[in-house]
Structure to design on (578 residues):
């Protein structure tokens, strides 16, 4: 019922999020003693600054802050749980209390919100469980001497976020807010955790994702553009996508416009009270803040607005005076465009012509690349990827399927190294393997929206759908090879039969049709076997049929397979491929 009310409210008006929590805590001047309370009086490390702990030691103060924002007009209050995850709390040796702190933070906010809703049922109040980015990054190395190193893994982040989300939901949160995202891979780990947890609990939870920008170029700290960030989290059926922190409202406006132009869901914004001054404070008054945020509303860019660092209940009160005068941003109709991303987006549309996939970083396709990987010479192997992008590859295919290579480790290492090279990382990755554990290792190392190559019906419908669900959970598209339990589809009739069946299974299970890329098997002709002579035509006819009968799906083909019978005769092979 709460979700229905939330969606009804969002249809009617722009909702107000609260403002800065840390800003308000600072105004209370709490010391070490107040942070510790009686329970943590003898804790072995200093606890001042661990605001999340106040949900246990000073719940009265936390509730008072929530009530100030509710009185100011906030529709949504965020929980005191920004760092209430095991990764961040480890700095205070409190990682074992992540669930308890998260649950307590949500419960305090729930009681405050419910009290205000009871007083005025016509203005329901909602609780958003705040989930910060942690103090680690999964996409970048903290060691300049080892760009492939990572301080935290996707798996560790997912475990920490699962525990935090469970606590927030058990404490009564209506929404989960993944905010201040500086590394999209961290956010994808949170989304993976939430989706897995919701499947386990048999429930759907509205999820907001809000990124933060690192510089005037409008990129996240991990290098993604606003557009690529939006694409990378688009798989999660979000309540909203947005931007917060980093900038004041005026500075954030051009990037918010770019986000609103591409977002297929609602848009949120909660900027700082201007840029920090030399003392680290914020000078933008409530009136100045409201005027700048009002421009978001005038331009029809937002559905949810609030404040971040430096904002107070006074800032939110000023917004409450004007928010009712503007309509929320209308939800765009589904576009069904195939869009992938590295550090930048790649839109696969008719105007883009053919999309070139660079396959030299495939151990099966390049003797040199395979040798470099076997020797552990990743630096030179990286130059192969760089050369492909410079030559015009719009996607880089990475395959480590070789008996002498540890596939998962090699995939992880190479993708981590690619992520450290912006000129390579700007394009999406095709994670290519016949082994699920290698595909999974690649997905857990990729912050953009990748393509998995491949899945098929070879092992039956149940396994096909299980893998497809996991690929979607990781936020990737999928190449579907036209194989089934009977083997490879070679004729036009078999290709269309398998494609139609796979498409029906995937779309019926919620997999977006625009994220399906069929590979109808380009097979070798002129082998001397008469049955093979029609293989090229069967591929072309099947491609045409897929385009006509399976809306929004894409087609890929390894054209070099066509001429295998002429290996060694490059002139003939190149003519055939053209």
């Amino acid at each position: 019922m709460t979700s229905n009310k939330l969606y009804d409210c969002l249809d009617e008006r722009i909702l107000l999020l609260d403002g800065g929590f840390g800003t308000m805590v600072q105004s209370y001047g709490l010391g070490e003693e107040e942070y510790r309370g009686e329970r943590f009086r003898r804790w072995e490390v200093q606890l001042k600054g661990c605001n999340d702990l106040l949900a246990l030691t000073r719940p009265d103060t936390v509730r008072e802050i929530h009530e100030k924002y509710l009185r100011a007009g906030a529709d949504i209050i965020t929980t005191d749980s920004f760092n209430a995850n095991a990764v961040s709390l480890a700095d205070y040796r409190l990682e074992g209390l992540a669930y308890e702190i998260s649950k307590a933070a949500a419960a305090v906010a729930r009681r405050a919100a419910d009290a205000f809703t009871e007083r005025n049922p016509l203005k329901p109040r909602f609780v958003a469980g705040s989930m910060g980015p942690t103090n680690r990054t999964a996409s970048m190395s903290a060691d300049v001497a080892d760009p492939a190193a990572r301080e935290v893994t996707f798996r560790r982040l997912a475990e920490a976020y699962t525990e935090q989300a469970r606590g927030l939901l058990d404490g009564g949160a209506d929404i989960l807010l993944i905010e201040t995202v500086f590394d999209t891979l961290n956010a994808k780990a949170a989304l993976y955790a939430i989706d897995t947890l919701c499947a386990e609990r048999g429930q759907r939870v509205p999820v907001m994702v809000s990124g933060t920008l690192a510089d005037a170029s409008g990129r996240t700290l991990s290098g993604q553009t606003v557009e690529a960030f939006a694409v990378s989290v688009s798989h999660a059926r979000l309540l909203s996508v947005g931007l917060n922190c980093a900038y004041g409202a005026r500075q954030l406006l051009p990037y918010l416009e770019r986000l609103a132009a591409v977002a297929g869901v609602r848009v949120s914004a909660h900027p700082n009270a201007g840029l920090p001054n030399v003392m680290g404070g914020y000078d933008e008054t409530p009136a100045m803040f409201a005027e700048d945020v009002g421009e978001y509303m005038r331009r029809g860019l937002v559905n949810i607005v609030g404040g971040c660092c430096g904002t107070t209940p006074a800032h939110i009160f000023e917004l409450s005076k004007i928010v009712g005068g503007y309509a929320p941003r209308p939800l765009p109709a589904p576009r069904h465009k195939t869009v992938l991303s590295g550090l930048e987006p790649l839109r696969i549309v008719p105007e883009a012509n053919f999309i070139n996939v660079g396959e030299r970083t495939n151990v099966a396709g390049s003797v040199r690349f395979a040798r470099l990987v076997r020797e552990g010479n990743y630096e030179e192997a990286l130059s192969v990827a760089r050369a492909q992008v410079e030559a015009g590859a719009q996607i880089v295919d990475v395959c480590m399927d070789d008996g002498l290579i540890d596939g998962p480790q090699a995939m992880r290492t190479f993708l981590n190294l690619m992520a450290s090279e912006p000129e390579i990382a700007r394009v999406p990755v095709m994670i290519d393997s016949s082994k699920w554990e290698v595909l999974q290792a690649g997905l857990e190392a990729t912050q953009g929206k990748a393509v998995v190559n491949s899945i098929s019906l070879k092992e039956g419908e149940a396994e096909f759908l299980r893998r497809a669900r996991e690929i979607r959970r990781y936020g990737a598209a999928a190449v579907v090879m036209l194989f089934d339990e009977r083997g490879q589809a070679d004729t036009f009739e078999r290709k269309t039969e398998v494609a139609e069946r796979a498409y029906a299974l995937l779309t019926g299970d919620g997999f977006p049709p625009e994220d399906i890329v069929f590979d109808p098997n380009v097979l070798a002709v002129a082998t001397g076997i008469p049955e093979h002579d029609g293989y090229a035509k069967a591929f072309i006819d099947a491609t045409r049929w897929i385009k006509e009968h399976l809306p929004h799906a894409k087609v890929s083909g390894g054209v070099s397979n066509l001429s295998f019978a002429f290996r060694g005769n490059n002139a003939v092979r190149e003519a055939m491929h053209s």
About this structure: The longest strand covers residues 240-248.
